Amino acid sequence: MRLGERSYAVHVGPGARKLLPDVVAALGARRAAVVTARPPETVPDPGVPSTVVRVRDGERHKTLATVEDLCRRFTAFGITRHDVVVSCGGGTTTDTAGLAAALHHRGVPVIHLPTKLLAQVDASVGGKTAVNLPEGKNLVGAYWQPAAVLCDTTYLETLPAEEWTNGYGEIARCHFIGAGDLRGLAVHEQVTASLRLKASIVSADERDTGRRHVLNYGHTLGHALETVTGFAVRHGIGVAIGTVFAGRLALALGRITAGRAEEHARVVRDYGLPGALPEDADATLLTTLMRRDKKAAGDGLAFVLDGPRGAELVPGVPEDVVLRTLGGMPRQSGPARP
């Protein structure tokens, strides 16, 4: 990730976690707070005096209350800006620990050890940290770039099937934002390709003022689905459904052909992901939630959509078109599953 003096390396491969003591030593940290959702024995020794803070992965635990608890634990152990926070878990853990590190003493270095596919391909890299409010997802956050990210692919070997599916939602949307066709590649190649794309985009637009918006492809509806279902629809599944919707909406606006819209559905299916809304999803409520999206201007609706120039932010999308497109989406009974 090339960000001038704040540039950092992202290491991908089996055993990457073993680099942790060297990274900590290079920072000159005196002590470490290890925030982990994994068993403590799976976290490498950071090489300095440390405390282990246990957390639980999951959007329900990604709250300001969790951040406060982390900061109090950091304080009790004496963590200062001369020390380091290490996160080890899924994307919700890297988000929460990253925000706590950003706020504690106005900024403590953080190193991420993402242990789930979704976290490795997206959540741990780029510096966005945030927690949820009852009103919506990721509404309270800060930009805080990590000092390093260690994507140890051996962590993925024990993941249950639903975690693989959740991660593939982020990989599938990469097909439409410049990564090319990643289907059929080995998982470490998919992770690396996704990260290289994200690094190139974030390096050019760290604070989400322009080009970085494309990383939110499929996320506007995805986040709304997470919120309205109380996170029964998981993030990657929501993004997959949102990607299919983005193709249909771009078609409705005359931005792409019917064939390109169908490609959205086909790519999502090829990753074993669903492309249908939950049967009881309310289109009006989803639209209300999508107005709160961080890309939206005022009360307008904005989406990242495919088009003649590729994926780009499209503001001012008419509500009636959004509602009509949602109404035309396929539906499935029960929680959204592949």
UniProtKB/TrEMBL annotation:
Residues 186-296 form the 3-dehydroquinate synthase C-terminal domain. It comes from the Bacteria. Pfam families: DHQ_synthase, DHQS_C. SUPFAM superfamilies: Dehydroquinate synthase-like. Its cofactor is NAD(+). It is an enzyme of class 4 (lyase). Its EC number is 4.2.3.-. The keyword Amino-acid biosynthesis applies. The keyword Lyase applies. Residues 53-165 form the 3-dehydroquinate synthase N-terminal domain. GO terms for molecular function: lyase activity. Keywords: Amino-acid biosynthesis, Aromatic amino acid biosynthesis, Lyase, NAD. This is 3-dehydroquinate synthase family protein. It comes from Streptomyces roseoverticillatus.
